[in-house]
Specification:
- There is one protein chain.
- With about 210 residues, the protein is α+β, with helices and mostly antiparallel strands.
- It is built from eight helices and five strands.
- The protein has a five-stranded antiparallel sheet with strand order 1-2-3-4-5.
- Helix 3 packs antiparallel against helix 4, helix 5 packs across helix 7 and helix 7 crosses helix 8.
């Protein structure tokens, strides 16, 4: 009888206590498609809030959107991919500076597209994984606008069970590849310092336009 009671105590321990000792990602890793959907729907939810669509609420609305963007986008990885070989030549301080400037540019670009949203339907099509131990994934989505399908696909990287966006393909065109081509052209003509100056000027002009 004592052995029987001991068995059930052990079973209860396994069912109730053991899950608390196992890291979250090992319990129930959320799929990349689910994480993209959660982020996109969170952002669209912000856009649909009447109180945030009122005059004078632009900054509050953008801050709410940015909370979702910062949570899901890996700006360090995006910076590395954009500068490619040049990234390895930078100092730690230069890398930090570039990442901050580049993330500002990306956020402005992304928010500009989002603010053109007018209740379009978003369909979450599928997810596919790379062969390398499911560390990378591609999530296919479509935005339905005026009876036209606009494919927007997200490339994601798995970090300890959570998926982070490192590139966005809009109608098959890579956001990172576009920036890499543009930045390479500027660096070839004006060196790296010229690129930083241009990025700072572009961000400053956008900030001025908000006022």
């Amino acid at each position: 009888m004592m052995k029987f009671i001991g068995y059930w105590r052990w079973l209860a321990f396994c069912v109730v206590v053991m899950p608390l000792l196992v890291p979250g990602p090992l319990l129930a890793e959320i799929s990349p498609l689910q994480q993209v959907k959660s982020t996109v729907e969170g952002i669209l939810g912000v856009m649909q809030k009447d109180e945030l669509r009122q005059p004078g609420k632009q900054e509050e609305r953008r801050a709410a959107i940015m909370a979702y963007v910062n949570r899901r986008f890996d700006f360090e990885e995006m910076s590395k991919l954009t500068l490619a070989r040049k990234w390895r030549e930078l100092t730690t301080a230069q890398k930090k500076q570039f990442e901050e400037l580049f993330s500002d540019l990306l956020k402005n670009t992304y928010i500009g597209r989002i603010e053109a949203y007018s209740n379009e339907e978003v369909r979450y099509e599928k997810e596919i994984f790379d062969s390398d131990q499911r560390t990378k994934a591609l999530v296919y989505t479509k935005v339905i606008k005026n009876n036209q399908e606009i494919p927007i696909n997200y490339k994601l990287l798995n970090k300890q069970g959570e998926w982070f966006v490192y590139d966005v393909l809009i109608e098959g065109v890579s956001l990172i590849r576009n920036y890499r081509t543009e930045f390479d052209r500027i660096i070839n003509k004006e060196k790296y310092a010229g690129l930083i100056k241009r990025m700072q000027e572009k961000i400053a002009s956008r900030e001025e336009a908000k006022r």
